[in-house]
Amino acid sequence: MYRTPELRAYQYFIDPSWSGGVYASPGVAGSRAGALIAGCWASMMSVGEDGYINSCKSIVGTAKRIARAIHEHPDLEILGSPIASVVAWTSSTLDIYDIADALTAKGWHLNSLQNPPAMHVAVTLPITKVQDKFLSDLFECVEDEKAKERDRIAAGAGAKGKSKGDSAALYGVAGSLPNKSIVVELTTVFLDTLYKA
């Protein structure tokens, strides 16, 4: 309930340099809205301590298996030392954003990262049930990108061709701008549209 959009913009939190990409939140609470907290509490009451512990074991075990499989792949590199449920990786031989877009085309909705260019999966209970399919699709996308890279080199275009997908457009461009003020302005306009909807 602001008189002008300019006044409303002061409540926004926008970080264009966050390693996860452009982070924008319409308020201080970020993505921790009250409904999510209530839902989390209700879930905890429903599954109890044993259910929580079993879920945790399954999620962390799956994350470790995914991290191990990615670590063993010659074209992928794990970032950091994942100890819980989030696994991030990059590639020094292929454009990671092309791989991200290929996974999106297969129905996976993962997060791309910037600084460095990478992607990550936040393992949840549904992922534990499809971990084999996820790894199979990931490695298939890597092989497809390797084939495209070989074709580019054979055609004389050089290695690591220019990404053209959505991930590269958002994360590659935003991450490469030395002055992030335009990113902040565009993000503010986006948040404003949420209030007009």
SS field, number of helical segments: 7
CATH class: Alpha Beta
Number of domains: 1
CATH T-level topology = Aspartate Aminotransferase, domain 1
Instruction: Give the uncertain stretches in residue-range form.
Output: none
Protein architecture, described:
With 197 residues, the protein is α+β, with helices and mostly antiparallel strands. It has a single domain, classed as Aspartate Aminotransferase, domain 1 (Alpha-Beta Complex), CATH 3.90.1150.10. Helix content is 55%, strand content 11%. The protein is built from seven helices and six strands. It has helices spanning 5-8, 34-72, 96-105, 125-129, 131-154, 166-176, 181-196; strands at residues 13-15, 23-25, 77-79, 86-90, 111-113, 118-122. A four-stranded antiparallel beta sheet has the order 3-4-6-5. Strand 5 and strand 6 (118-122) form a beta hairpin. Helix 3 crosses helix 5 and helix 3 packs antiparallel against helix 6 (166-176). The protein is flat and about 60 Å long. The two termini are 15 Å apart. The relative contact order is 0.15. The model has no long low-confidence stretch (mean pLDDT 86).
Layout: helices, strands, pairs:
Layout: H1 5-8, E1 13-15, E2 23-25, H2 34-72, E3 77-79, E4 86-90, H3 96-105, E5 111-113, E6 118-122, H4 125-129, H5 131-154, H6 166-176, H7 181-196
Antiparallel strand pairs: 1-2, 3-4, 4-6, 5-6
What can be said about this structure in brief?
The chain has 197 residues and is of the alpha+beta class.
Which key phrases capture this entry?
197 residues, single chain, flat, Aspartate Aminotransferase, domain 1, 7 helices, two-stranded antiparallel sheet, alpha+beta
